[in-house]
Structure formats: structure tokens, C-alpha cells
């Protein structure tokens, strides 16, 4: 029995198999919706903004 996962966009059951070219999504539409959300910065990977703030002062400030 193939593994079934939920589509991250619509929660529809999706069989996890190599023939499904949109996995883990159920369709190209759901894949593109997710891609658009990343492009619009609606999703993000948690990070340490305090670290970024501290280290940004160490960058060389050059005129371009």
C-alpha cells in the first residue's frame, strides 16, 4: 500500500510515489499556489534575527 500524505495547500490525500510529479502537492495548481506564497514572503524559515542584526554591522559598507 503506497504512503499517503496530505497536500500542504488543500489537505487532499496524495499518494507519495515517483509517478506523482507534483508531490507532495495534489496538482500543479496547489504547487504554484505554494510557490507564489514563498515568492510573496508569506512563508519563511525561522531564523535568529538577533544574530542577523548583530552581524550586519560587521559587513563592509561600500558605495555601488
From TrEMBL:
Residues 43-64 are annotated as: Disordered. This is DNA gyrase inhibitor YacG. The keyword Transferase does not apply. It comes from the Bacteria. Interacts with GyrB. Keywords: Metal-binding, Zinc. Inhibits all the catalytic activities of DNA gyrase by preventing its interaction with DNA. Acts by binding directly to the C-terminal domain of GyrB, which probably disrupts DNA binding by the gyrase. Binds 1 zinc ion. The lineage of its organism: Bacteria, Pseudomonadati, Pseudomonadota, Gammaproteobacteria, Oceanospirillales. The keyword Heme does not apply. GO terms for molecular function: DNA topoisomerase type II (double strand cut, ATP-hydrolyzing) inhibitor activity; zinc ion binding. Belongs to the DNA gyrase inhibitor YacG family. Its cofactor is Zn(2+). One of its GO terms (biological process) is regulation of DNA-templated transcription. It holds the Pfam family YacG. Zn(2+) binds at residues 7, 10, 26, 30.
Amino acid at each position: 500500500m503506497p504512503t499517503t500524505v496530505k497536500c500542504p495547500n488543500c489537505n487532499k490525500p496524495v499518494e507519495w510515489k515517483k509517478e506523482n510529479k507534483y508531490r507532495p502537492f495534489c496538482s500543479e495548481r496547489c504547487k504554484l499556489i505554494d510557490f507564489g506564497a514563498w515568492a510573496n514572503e508569506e512563508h519563511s524559515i525561522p531564523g535568529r534575527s538577533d544574530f542577523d542584526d548583530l552581524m550586519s554591522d560587521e559587513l563592509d559598507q561600500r558605495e555601488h
